[in-house]
Amino acid sequence: MPKETLTITDNRTGKSYEVPITDGTIRATDLRQIKVDDQDFGLMTYDPGFMNTCSCRSAITYIDGDKGVLRYRGYPVDQLAENATYLEVAYLLINGELPTQSELDEFTHNITHHTFVHENVRTFIDGFRYDAHPMGMLVATVGALSTFYPEAKHVLDHEIRRTQMIRLIAKMPTLAAWSYRHSMGMPFVYPNNELSYTENFLYMMKRIAEPKFEVHPEIVRALDVLFILHADHEQNCSTNVMRGVGSSRADPYVAVAAAAAALYGPLHGGANEAVLRMLREIGSVNNVPAFIKEVKSGVGGRLMGFGHRVYKNYDPRARVIKRLADQVFDIVGKKSPLLSVALELERIALSDDYFVSRKLYPNVDFYSGLIYEALRIPVDMFPVLFAIPRTSGWLAQWEELLLDKEQKIARPRQIYTGYGERKFIPMSERKRSSVTAEAVKSSPRETD
Ligand code: CMC
């Protein structure tokens, strides 16, 4: 039987080392024994962007990027999208099993009864400028919740930890909806305990003065499915941040704020916003070939909503979303004119060697923006709509980290490329460096 080990010969010294292989991986710290001499720190690995480094063991989400497979706790995401509700999925992610009816009832009751926020949160949100981006408000406000629940810092206490997890899942829609209302200059709407998680979010965001606020049940369901599809995605950028901040034992409110900040970026959760802006800029099907040409030449930026670090096949979430988009367009009664631009982009990209050879396929963000647009949700809100459901995934991953005996504070190494030791230069002897002069020349003038 072949041995589950790796033999490494260090050509600098001629010495050989045998390190164990477990689950298809070697431990980076096993390389430290490989030294040129006793003074040597030992061999390290260099992996910017974690291209080939596992940072944890996890039993939550499984992705096979080559086959386009995504499963939460073993269940294929399309089956969950077909049969479950978002809260069922949140329960599954956090607890590892699908809930029984009574477990789900209790979980739903707990979430529903934690949707209100302290009145000072309302004044906090009121303090933002009238044109503040809702994602910026969400990041700041969820972080501010840390000051309302000081006991949250006891992250190793099961009861306390679980209470904050419920609070976070419950309050994210309230904060998200209020961020939107503030940016629209509209009064805040308080949560309604009679509504489902997703309907309540739409109610807080959209209600004006209707005596009875009603949304088509299939629209509520469509948003719930989008929430399911966005709930977790193993060690993505924001989850890595959640774990990184959590590894210092910071409380979950500031950790979720940090994770949401990572999600905000256009290469991650901000991509859905970027996709819609891109589709609007392209404007019509006729402009698609020229746009694709620009992307390929490198001058036109990237084709947003395409490509993924892990998926080298069609993102399974994009498949479900594309179907969902058709259903939503049927209900709202009109197709977005941008849909034809998106379809044409997809058609060309999937047959163009540039995209095919790089295995660039549509990802979750390519079609989700069109659904949000059809629901008349402004583009600024798109990353916020991603952050709401991803909260359950972040929290499941955060708790898994805290309970994992192998985990330590996240602290990577570096290859130092700066100066060796230098003697301090007194102010009178310093010369203006060319770097500073260049920076001053090229920096934009502040006008505001
Ligand atoms: N358009 C054009 N070229 C692309 C794209 C794209 N969207 N994505 C990757 N490439 C090219 C890239 O230029 C590179 O080409 P070359 O080998 O000639 O240098 C090659 O494909 C590999 O790209 P990479 O940047 O090394 O790949 P990565 O794994 O580091 O990046 C990604 C993954 C998602 C950041 C990237 O594909 C991208 O920027 N996509 C657009 C933004 C986007 O849609 N993000 C949402 C991701 S899914 C949801 C989420 O995570 O939140």
How would you describe the overall organization of this protein?
With 448 residues, the chain is mainly alpha-helical. It has a domain at 5-45. Helix content is 49%, strand content 5%. The chain has 18 helices and 5 strands. Strands 3-4-5 form a 3-stranded antiparallel β-sheet. It has a two-stranded antiparallel sheet with strand order 1-2. The structure holds carboxymethyl coenzyme *A. Residues 236, 267-269, 271, 295, 302-309, 358, 360, 363-365 line the site of carboxymethyl coenzyme *A.
Name the helix and strand elements from N-terminus to C-terminus, one letter apiece: EEEEEHHHHHHHHHHHHHHHHHH
Find the structural class using helix and strand composition. Answer: mainly alpha
List unreliable stretches of 5+ residues: none
| Residues in helix, % | 40-55%
- Which oligomerization state do the chains in this entry correspond to? single chain
From the spread of the alpha carbons, the general shape counts as globular
Gap between N and C termini: 71 Å
Biggest sheet, open or closed, and with what strands and sense? 3 strands, antiparallel
Instruction: Compute the CA-based radius of gyration.
Output: 25 Å
